[in-house]
Write a structure and sequence with these properties.
Helix content is about 60%, strand content about 5%. The protein has about 375 residues and is an alpha/beta fold. A 5-stranded mixed β-sheet has the order 2-1-3-4-5, with helices on both faces. It is a multi-pass membrane protein.
Length: about 375
């Protein structure tokens, strides 16, 4: 009868820790902590103290000289909350608001006791409210009343004009999650150019479906965003594909760490600077500067333009998204080709090829 074997002696607590948490896992946890702290800093830094800064506003009056004098008075306000300029008449002022050249307009009526402030809550209720407060204080100091006229109001189902922002954020989340799944399901880096093209093709199909379904939910289903489906569908497809292509590119360059880099760019920096809760003129300088250049900001601005401004001023943000999409796809394919070239060189030299994901597992 065989004697039961006794369990091997414990190697100690430190050995157990090293076995449970590898050095690689520990380094990744440090990266996650840094990402978490960056998230907290970015969101609180952007939103903790919104202040109006150089909000573009047109000033109109029956006499050009009156309009110019009033514009100068607004420009001289402490802290420069407004960036005013005089225009010919009320029609010109209204056109500039609807074309998204300015965020509001003050129409002066010397013959009456009140002036009119034209706003566009479709561009964000917080921005309209900031204009009302700043201009209202100035008009009160001058002994004038102000009547607010919303020339591009948000829809009844679009609380505070935030639906476009949330729609774009949802598209962004889908983009980087889809790309992450496509990449990590078969190794952290694409092994060849064919697989890179296939993943980009799969991402495009996903983007088309996600763009359409998101538009239908926000529009016909929930009644949050008015307007046609086709333009928002196209925008949604571009947003999802651009964010997904960026994520695939980061993964091609940095492996699994690339997912964290994509989250850093799109979520940590992109979301708070997107102009959603607080449009650009209410954000601190850093976030105001980077917002229009990142996918969430470009997507949010374009979505509001399509929904409430007949597509005016949407071309620039759409070009930004297209540039991210092209850059992400190009880097993804380049990394795949470069990696295949290195693998071929290794095989030709008789050395082990570099077709693993860094953990001893072949990248399929």
């Amino acid at each position: 009868m065989t004697q039961p074997t006794s369990p091997p002696p414990s190697a100690g607590f430190l050995a157990e820790v090293k076995d449970a948490v590898t050095v690689r896992a520990a380094l990744l946890l440090v990266g996650v902590l840094a990402l978490q702290l960056a998230f907290i800093t970015s969101y609180i830094g952007a939103f903790h103290q919104p202040e109006p800064s150089e909000i573009p506003i047109a000033v109109a009056a029956p006499a050009r000289q009156v309009a110019e004098q009033s514009a100068q008075q607004l420009a001289d306000l402490p802290g420069k909350p407004l960036d005013p300029h005089a225009v010919q008449d009320e029609a010109a002022a209204t056109a500039e608001v609807k074309d998204r050249e300015v965020d509001g307009a003050l129409v002066i009526d010397p013959a009456g006791p009140a002036d009119r402030l034209l706003v566009a809550s479709g561009a964000g209720a917080s921005l309209s409210q900031a204009l009302e407060q700043v201009v209202g204080r100035v008009e009160q100091a001058r002994g004038r009343a102000v009547r607010v006229v919303d020339v591009a109001p948000a829809a009844a189902g679009d609380a505070r004009g935030l639906s476009a922002f949330y729609l774009v954020i949802g598209w962004c989340v889908g983009g980087y999650l889809c790309a992450a799944i496509l990449a990590i399901s078969a190794g952290a880096r694409p092994a060849n150019s064919h697989r890179a093209f296939i993943r980009l093709g799969a991402l495009l199909l996903y983007a088309i479906a996600a763009g359409l379904l998101g538009t239908v939910i926000a529009g016909p289903v929930l009644g949050a965003l008015p307007g046609g489906i086709m333009a928002l569908w196209g925008l949604g497809t571009l947003v999802v594909f651009a964010v997904g292509a960026i994520t695939l590119a980061f993964q091609g360059v940095a492996g699994v760490v690339g997912i964290g880099l994509a989250i850093l760019l799109v979520v940590v920096f992109g979301n708070p600077s997107a102009g959603g809760a607080y449009p650009y003129p209410l954000l601190p300088p850093f976030w105001r500067a980077i917002g229009p250049a990142l996918p969430p900001g470009a997507g949010t601005y374009a979505a509001r333009s399509i929904t409430y401004f007949e597509g005016n001023a949407a071309a620039g943000p759409m070009l930004v998204l297209a540039a991210w999409a092209v850059l992400g796809a190009a880097v993804t394919v380049t990394c795949a080709v470069f990696r295949r070239g290195r693998a071929g060189a290794a095989v030709g030299s008789g050395l082990p090829d570099d077709a693993t994901d860094g953990q001893g597992a072949t990248a399929r």
